[in-house]
Amino acid sequence: MKFIKPAWLSHSGEQKDYEVYSCHVSPDGSRLATAAGDGHVRIWSTDAILHAQDPNYAQPKQLCHMSYHSGTIHTVRFSPNGRWLASGADDKIICIYHLDTSPPAHSVSFGTNEPPPVENWKIAKRLIGHDNDVQDLGWSYDSSIMVSVGLDSKIVVWSGHTFEKLKIIQAHQSHVKGITFDPANKYFATASDDRTIKLFRFNSPSPSTTQYDSINNFVLEHTIVEPFKSSPLTTYFRRCSWSPDGNHIAAANAVNGPVSSVAIINRGIWDSDINLIGHEGPTEVCTFSPRLFSKQEISADTTDNSGHSTQPLVTVIACAGQDKTLSIWNTSSSRPLVVCQDLAAKSISDLTWAPDGATIFATSLDGSIIAVQFEKGELGYIAPWSENEKALQKFGVGRRGVGVVEDISGLRLEDLAKAGEMAGAQGRMGELMGAPDSQPAPLMNGTIHASPIASVTPTPAVVANGGPVQEAPPAAVEDSSAQKVEAMKQRVTITKEGKKRVAPLLVSSSGTGLSSLPQTQMIAGISSNLTSEAPQSILDLSKPYDGLPRGGIASMLLGNKRKAIYLDGEEDVEHQSKRPALGDGNGPIPIMINGINGAEPAVPSLPRIGVVSTPDFIRPAIVNATLSVSQLRLAVPRIRTHILRSLDRGTLASTTANGTSGVDESSKASEDIIFEAVNPAQTGAVRKDPAKISTTKRGAVLWQDFLPQAVILVTGNKNFWSAACEDGSIYTWTPSGRRIFNALCVEAQPVILESRGWWLLCITAVGTCHVWSLKTLSSPHPPVSMAPILDIAMHSLGTHTTSGPAVTSAHLNSNGFIIVTLNNGDGYMYSPNLFVWQRLSEAWWAVSSQYWNSNDSSLSSLQSSSVGPDMRRDDQVGTADISAGVIPHLERHTTNEVLLKGRAYTLQRMTKALLSREGFETFESTVSIGHLENRVAAALQLGAKEEFKTYLNMYTKRLGAEGQKNKIEELLRSILGGVLQEKDGAGEKGAGWLSNNKQLCGWDRKELLRQAVLILGKFRELQRLTVQYAKVLDMVEEE
After folding, report:
1. What is the distance, to the nearest Å, from the Cα of residue 4 to the centroid of all Cα atoms in its chain?
2. How many Å separate Cα 604 from the centre of its chain?
3. pLDDT tens readout for residues 675-703
4. Which residues are bridge partners to 73 per DSSP?
């Protein structure tokens, strides 16, 4: 071992040598870069340093010097691929240099003693991302990322390809002074004055990775606290190092009781049971040699057939700090191999090993740069690089995005998760290919709905005399679309060469076959008995609709530059663009659909409003005097000549996707019952005749009644009929016309009257909602005002009266919950348990969430059967039918009111601005998770069984992809609930997630937990958590 300290190896100034803060050796071992307080980065020839005692050595000593910083440079690091050199200083800037192959064009600067440069290092980038001094830098071992840390407590991740800022991590609470990378390229660790080391897991990004793509990368894995609880805060650096075999992290400035030490942290469990003790002062830097060592020289006797060493290999680590002492240790001895005291006059600031593992360079704050060269065998015998690769294989080096399996249970759980995914994929593929044994996706509401594109009229079964039921042969139906398809197949075009060609026809565009795939319509499936949901507008699209232009957020921000594809022979024809512009940047973003003439703006279709058109009105209704002093004033319907209500309203108007009725309309009309209210025409100033109420079937009057006041609204179903009069009275009749209830009197004119099952809803002109159960003769809650959801506070505070949102529809679900939609796109539910309105859908989710109007196959069968008329012929309400389709109905309404009518312009502009702002990198991901949580909470509150399971699975899958361990652990614990807890009679009983029932929203908790564990089973970084629940459910065997 020999020490080399040339007099010329320093950052000399006029008065003194400047403090040297950092050094690093290039990957090929030929260059040593140093950084000092003079603001210069100097590159030295390592060969010249090692031959400093040779007087005949005539090669250049200093290869280059760069002075692009305006302050003290704290760190300098070569990239592992040797292409880049990075430096960070107290001017908050990071400079990236590269070696230009051309000779340097400039000579020595006038007035300096600097030797002329030998190599032409040029600055390539100046990176701005820190708000205070940059203390340390680190490169990943594949050079794909660079991480910088500083006194602003930030960790900034930069792309190693483009040097774009990928992520800013603010996980530490104080100055960050050290960074090291895992040689297996799975983690990096940062050391801070908050007395912690934090480990971050990452996947190496590609050259095209952007800041948005890195939202879910570089996640905090673990925080190490124990060895640093009382470490001093006086050190300038906390430079840590990762061992070349990947097993250990050496952490400087640790303590063992009152003694300073270097903590050796074990990989995986991240604990510290080994401390290197001996330094009298705090250590500032420790670094592992990049090579592995053996006690005996590598030979044929000490290697196996594959060429790998059969003897144990050890690592070597060097430590130094404020006590001016350099110590060198290896892992096979409890005592240091070398201790060099008073190596410098001041504290040692940095250490770096040459790639051969036989030379170490040290820098000190006294301005000295020292090389220590070891003879062969002094530290051990150097193992070949293949031993490093072999040692790292167990950590998955070279495998992108693959975590480390903890145990056999993790592998079994992963196999179960993959088997479930494969079964689902095979089922969908069977449907796509038309396999005879493939089953169509089950419908969620427990009812069988007709295919939206079915054009064949179903025929009833023929019953033989005393025999079994026989299927009648299908009737031959002339389909006009088939003729069109045949004509399209025979279309011949002539190319410019004069050749005839038959124009190709896309098989899926014929529309003649029945498809078992989810139909791409916003209404998420159409049934033969689907009823009108007036005034809901139904949007029919030819592809899945995401609430954003095609291409999503990126298309909205950057536009779509694809060119139109022209057929042969049409190049010389001047084409007019079939795609309207995506907006001029000043207006709302238009939403496009595929029309017959190319891309066309999507428009809401006209609502289907029943059997007959609305008649002319006679006069306005006489309003109550309370409207003049009421905070809310809703529009009162006009007095019409007659009002019709069909028991099966909307069935007669339903059509298939081909434009033809799927059933025989006349046969259904004959069985329908019509409820009619006729108001007499007013003659003169006095109205003399009463209003007439009647029900008819096949033209015959079933019963009739008379009311003294004009009727303004009617409703009804199979359980009762109801009519609301101008004076605020509400009358009810049984299906046979018996009055078994007295008139219900409300405070103002009814403006909305709806019924479902035995529930009756009335909303008055002063915004009060009444709900009654005619079966139990009770109300689930007192009358409730709509003022909270109509923004009464916002619109009453101004100096001038402004128009607030208006009610577009109000419905009841099977449990008597009020469901209200407004013209600003919001959808609300009144909770009778909490006595408060709850917002279930809003424009915020529509413009910001990635899950808005998901056309997932599991969602395509969600029918809005719990809003609008009730088609059940019995009194049974299955658990699967409660609130089924309410949430999709509300979100479709939000799309129609907000996106298609251009009312989301302000929110769209805000979202566009936030996506590019610093500090909002996780904005879209966070809002999307919030949207899924909103859906899950709404489904649980409504009791929508199938939707709850669907949304819960979507939520679980997204949390697994995001790697949010805290939320996942809380979710699994909440699903498990009271299954394993002993029932305690004392205390208040919980509800929902906190209930002790074995069921959650109608599902067995264990079944929900099993599905969640299967979904999360494929994420290896979560297996330490999910395997425990899998063992509880007996999904994997105990070890």
Report:
1. 56
2. 29
3. 999 988 765 556 678 999 999 988 889 99
4. 89
Determine the straight-line distance between the first and last CA of the chain, rounded to whole angstroms. Answer: 51
pLDDT recorded at residue 369 = 93
* Cα–Cα distance list, 986 to 592, 624, 977, 979 (Å): 59, 52, 17, 17
DSSP 8-state symbol, 690: P
In the block, which residue shows the tokens 């949007």? 539
With 0-12 CB in 10 A as exposed, 13-18 as middle and 19+ as buried, what is 120?
A: middle
What are 548's two structure tokens? 């954003």
Strand partners, 695: 675, 703
Asked if 529 contacts 570 with a C-beta cutoff of 8 angstroms, the reply is no
C-beta of residue 708 within 8 angstroms of C-beta of residue 754: no
Q: How far apart are CA 911 and CA 771, in angstroms?
A: 39
DSSP 953: H
Listing from the earlier edge strand, what are the strands of the sheet with 338-340?
283-288, 316-321, 326-330, 338-340
* Contact by Cβ (8 Å): 161, 204: no
What number of other Cβ atoms are within 10 A of residue 386's Cβ?
A: 12
The two tokens of residue 327 are: 């110590």
What are residue 256's DSSP bridge partners?
259
User: Is the CB of residue 339 less than 8 Å from the CB of residue 325?
Assistant: yes
Query: Over the chain, what is the mean pLDDT?
Result: 77
535: preceding bond cis by omega (within 30 degrees) = yes
551 backbone φψ class: left, alpha, beta (φ>0; ψ -120 to 50): left
DSSP 68-89: --SS-EEEEEE-TTSSEEEEEE
652/660 Cα distance (integer angstroms)? 12
On the 0-12 / 13-18 / 19+ scale of CB atoms within 10 A, 877 is: middle
Give CA separation, 526 vs 360, 362, 473, 523, 533, in Å: 75, 76, 25, 7, 13
Tokens describing residue 946 = 């199938």
CA angle 32/366/249 to nearest 5° reads: 60
| 821-824 own/partner pairs: CB under 8 Å, 24+ apart | 821/536, 821/890, 821/893, 821/897, 822/789, 822/790, 822/897, 823/897, 824/897, 824/898, 824/903
Question: What CA–CA distance (Å, rounded) separates 353 from 371?
Answer: 10
Distances (CA, A) of 378 to 117, 313, 339, 341: 36, 15, 13, 19
| pLDDT tens figures, 865-883 | 455 555 444 444 555 556 6
- Give the integer Cα–Cα distance in Å for 725 and 732: 11
Can you count the helices (H) and strands (E) in the chain? Answer: 15, 57
3-class SS shares of the chain: helix, strand, coil, % to 5: 20, 30, 55
pLDDT class for 315, splitting at 50, 70, 90? very high
Compute the distance between CA of residue 977 and CA of residue 980 in angstroms, rounded to an integer.
8
Residue 1039 tokens read as 């070890």
Rounded CA gap, 948 and 89, in Å?
Answer: 54
Residue 648, CB-side half-sphere exposure with 13 Å CA sphere: 18
